[in-house]
Structures are given as structure tokens and as C-alpha cells.
Amino acid sequence: MSWRPQYRSSKFRNVYGKAASREHCFDGIPITKNVHDNHFCAVNARFLAIVTESAGGGSFLVIPLQQTGRIEPNYPKVCGHQGNVLDIKWNPFIDNIIASCSEDTSVRIWEIPEGGLKRNMTEAVLELYGHSRRVGIVEWHPTTNNILLSAGYDYKVLIWNLEVGEPVKMIDCHTDVILCMSFNADGSLLATTCKDKRLRVVEPRSGRVLQEASCKNHRVNRVVFLGSTKRLLTTGVSRWNTRQIALWDQEDLSMPLIEEEIDGLSGLLFPFYDADTHMLYLAGKGDGNIRYYEICSEKPYLSYLMEFRSPAPQKGLGVMPKHGLDVSACEVFRFYKLITLKGLIEPISMIVPRRSETYQEDIYPMTPGTEPALTPDEWLSGVNRDPILMSLKEGYKRNSKIVFKAPVREKKSVVVNGIDLLENVPPRTENELLRMFFRQQDEIRRLKDELSQKDIRIRQLQLEIKNFRNIPKNN
Questions:
Q1: CA distance 125 to 405
Q2: What's the rounded Cα separation, in Å, for the pair 398 and 323?
Q3: Backbone region of residue 382 per phi and psi (left: phi > 0; alpha: psi in -120 to 50; beta: other values)
Q4: Whether 35 and 131 share a structural domain
Q5: CA distances (Å), 133 to each of 11, 59, 89, 310, 322, in order?
Q6: Where are the WD repeats (predicted)?
Q7: Domain boundary among 350, 368, 395
Q8: What is the pTM of this model?
Q9: Which residue among 118, 137, 172, 327 is least enclosed by CB atoms within 10 Å?
């Protein structure tokens, strides 16, 4: 009997990536040069937000999606932070509400006017202070409105109830900087990766660590929950410094189900998972390509499909929510690629080739919509509920009627679990001490230069006075 290769039937076998034409890109954008490992981009069905390079504080652009082409240099910005903006995320239930976090230790909530910005926005509707160091990550709860998580360089994750404008819970189980956070489908579990080389699955309301993996052979950087499959996928680096992905059972992190090496490049691998199509996308920071796979419930679990190639390296990628996709073109995923060298944001559509122009129900199942399933009080009391689903055939043009109302508050101390977060500062890391040392050295050099300039000026003035005194007087 002759050997035959195993054939695996898949409707996504021929998915291909299609980059938008130049007139449908966003050009002339001063994309930030910050080296923080984030996307610096967020997108929803109405707006595109990009963190920009700025002096004297942090700022980001908010551009309506239909306003493609070249963006003017004086285009209005959101510029209320006093430090570099490190992360931005749109509210999944209110299209014009965006959260940002910064090196100035604050998290801010902004309300974008209808039609976009007409002038610079400096006043946030809500300013959240609870971290004692810079804040690197913000994450919205997937099923509950007005619940926001933030992770700072003080090793803490704070859960904010935006209806009261205060942190209501604190997760304090990390011993180093948190690199990534990911919720499961109903928001009952939170997975985190940390610089201490540990992968954790945490119950967010109690802060209790349910599972923990010490990743010595696979140094984890990023993690994502694979929908409701009770599995996690991480990207990281192997002991031979090759880029690697690993699949885990969320109820047993003692050993990964599979580990697979990708390549020997050095850029961070960003994972993106589409629970509707069970497709995984891998995009490397500084790469020009995007690999995509199909996740299966049985071995080998991971099946390689294809790769989108581009010569332009990407700094980060924004992802369009499902209800913003073009279903008439059989588009199942859309990236917004940041190309720093060109100051360009390039949309990339992942398309299933179909001859029919009618709605394809097999590739567009019911998907999480724009209505929250829980209130903050319900979720904080322990209730879990699956997201409210919507059909893209009828509901993708429906606008949410939820309105954000900022609370009125005045409070200088932030106390959670009996601890004042602004007073309880962890010891500084070695990198932070080195940065502080170099800043102090630069300041000393600057002051010496100023003193030498003043000495030169004093000598010049003394010489002028001496020459003036030596001028003979006329009789």
C-alpha cells in the first residue's frame, strides 16, 4: 500500500492577506519611536487611534476611519498626559470612549466627539491615579461595562470601577513587571505573563493564583486565551534564543501541550486569536510578514495555513472588531499595520476567497456584540455570564446606546485592601536605578556646561569693564 499524505479539510485553507491601496492608508503620521513592547494603535468600527511622537508629554491621534489619505501635521491630538503614552484601548461597548495609560503613572478616560477632534483635547473625562510608577498596559473587561484593568511598573494590577472612578480590587501576586494580560471569553479568568518568567492564571476578583508555570525552557512574553477552549497560547523565546510558541491547558500549567519553534529572529511575537474562525495570527515586531494557523481540538492542535508577506517592517498592529469588518468581501480579520519608516498606517484584510457575493453564514457565526452582559456590581459580586452574541448579517451597523457618565470625586489617597497604593512603593529594579543614574549624570553635565558658559560671560564682562576704565577722558 502506497503512502498518502493526510488530508485535512478546512474552509480557511486558502485565506489570503490583501493590503489596502495607498489612497486607503493613513499617511504622514509621526508614529512614536518609543521602544515599549505594545502596539501603540487601537481601532474600532468608527475611529483609528495612534500614539505619536511628541515633545513635553504624551499624545495620540484619533482619526475617523473614512478620513484616509495624508494627515496634516497640525491635525488635532489628544495630549493631556505629562509623560509618554504607553498603551491605548477602545471601550468595547461605547465607540467614542478610549482609555490610555502613561509614564506619568496615570490612566485616563477620554470621550471623543462625534466626527472626531476639531481641536487638541487636553481634558480627560476621568483621571485615575493609583499606581506609584508608570503604567504599561490597560485592558477592558470583555463582558462587563465600565470595568478596566491596568498594570504598572509597581508590579500591581488594579481593577477600576469607572462608575465610581476608584480601584476596587488589586492583584498583587507578581514579583516583577507584568508584560501581558488576557481575559478568557466570559472574563472570569485572567492570564498574565511577567518578567519573572512565570505564566499565571488568576481569578481577578480575589487575586488568587489558580495555576502558575515557571517557564525556564520557554521564556514567555505574550499570552492569549483561545476563546472558550480552556487553552492558552504563549509566545516567547527558547533556551537557544529562537522565537517559540507554546500551547497550554489552562487547568494544568505543569507542562505545555506542544512547543513549536518559529525562527531565529529577535523581534517580539504578537499573537492574535479569532475565536469565530479558530485562526491564530502571529506577527513579529520588526517583521514584514504575518503567519496564520488553524487551532484544532485534537493533535497536532496547530495547523499552519499560510503567510502574508510584506517588505515593510511593522512596529505594531491594531485589530478591527468583528462588527467592523466588510462581510460582503468575505473579510474575516483586519489588521492596521504601523510602518514607522514611512509614517504610514496600512490596513491588511484577511479574506476567504468565495465566488458568491451573498452572506456566508459558515464563516460568520454569531459573535460577541456591542452590548455588555453584566454591570460592574454584578461582576464584582461573583456573577459570570457569556458575552451577548450578535449576527453580522443584520447587526453590524447597529450603534450602541450606552453613554459613559464620569463620576464626580475628590480623593488624594487610594486605599485598596487596607493599603495606600500611592505610599506603598516597591523597591526599584536594576534597570530603573541605571536609568536614574544616567539621568543624574546628564543633569550634572548640563549644569557644568551652564556654569562654564556663565564663567566665560563673566570674564567677558570683566574685560569690557577694564577696557572701559582704560579709555582716556576728554578734557
A1: 9
A2: 9
A3: left
A4: yes
A5: 47, 19, 20, 38, 35
A6: 78-120, 128-170, 171-212
A7: 395
A8: 0.82
A9: 118
